[in-house]
Write a structure and sequence with these properties.
Oligomer: single chain
Radius of gyration: 19 Å
Pfam family, one: Glutaminase
CATH superfamily of the largest domain: DD-peptidase/beta-lactamase superfamily
GO molecular function: glutaminase activity
Largest sheet: 3 strands, antiparallel
Helix content: 40-55%
Number of domains: 2
Strand content: 5-15%
CATH architecture of the largest domain: 3-Layer(aba) Sandwich
Number of helices: 11
Protein name: glutaminase
Number of strands: 5
CATH class of the largest domain: Alpha Beta
Order of helices and strands: HHEHHHEHHHEEEHHH
Structural class: mainly alpha
Strand order of the largest sheet: 3-4-5
Keywords: Hydrolase
Enzyme class: hydrolase
Shape: globular
Distance between the termini: 45 Å
Length: about 240
């Protein structure tokens, strides 16, 4: 609609969102701003940067440059935007590193309504959390998003590095990492883990909390103890 991308979970939308961050300042200040924000999301757990990945993204970014020029032609960027500079910043953001531990805290911050569970600091507004989780639920798993929403029923975001960030709203956040990908660009073992999780626990958005007696409910008293063997297997 209006020749503008509406999905920030894929390249075109992500590039436009990148152009909206801290308009009017240089890329160094923008990058520092994003890193500070991610550190707050992660409760000051590890958030780093891979220069090797950045150089690779920049040198093999023909498709993203093509997308950038198309977006520029359709006037999707704010007026006066330096498209090449925005792509450089985008490649920097694509090169940010996290661990499973730090990313799981980010997921838990989303699950906790925008409050970081480690620091107790509010990082996101309730509206931002709701909108982010809605997008993750509807389009966070590339072309597999519809099937994932049907079978798993939880907001998630995958990446081509093999990670899946999974949010169980009001309960917990998790990060799975296993590099082998399927044809849609999602972690094969990560998908299997998410299926196993909702087959064991009543976390699917449309599981009935009263009548799914065969599934575990960690929300109930003693539920975490019954999850012991599963938690051991995860670790």
């Amino acid at each position: 609609e209006d020749d503008k991308p509406h999905n920030p979970m894929v390249n075109a939308g992500a590039i436009v969102v990148t152009s909206l961050i801290k308009q009017g300042v240089n890329n160094a200040e923008k990058f520092d701003y994003v890193m500070q924000f991610l550190n707050k999301m992660a409760g000051n757990e590890y958030v780093g940067f891979s220069n090797a990945t950045f150089q690779s993204e920049r040198e093999s970014g023909d498709r993203n440059f093509a997308i950038g020029y198309y977006l520029k032609e359709k006037k999707c960027f704010p007026e006066g935007t330096d498209m090449v500079g925005i792509l450089d910043f985008y490649f920097q953001l694509c090169s940010i590193e996290v661990t499973c531990e730090s990313a799981s805290v980010m997921a838990a911050t989303l699950a906790n309504g925008g409050f970081c569970p480690i620091t107790g600091e509010r990082v996101l507004s309730p509206e931002a959390v709701r909108n982010t989780l809605s997008l993750m639920h509807s389009c966070g798993m590339y072309d597999f998003s519809g099937q994932f929403a049907f079978h798993v029923g939880l907001p998630a975001k995958s990446g081509v590095a093999g990670g899946i960030l999974l949010v169980v709203p009001n309960v917990m956040g998790m990060m799975c990492w296993s590099p082998p990908l399927d044809k849609m660009g999602n972690s094969v073992k990560g998908i299997h883990f998410c299926h196993d999780l909702v087959s064991l626990c009543n976390f699917h958005n449309y599981d009935n909390l009263r009548h799914f007696a065969k599934k575990l409910d960690p929300r109930r008293e003693g539920g975490d103890q019954r999850l012991g063997p599963f938690i051991t297997q995860v670790h």
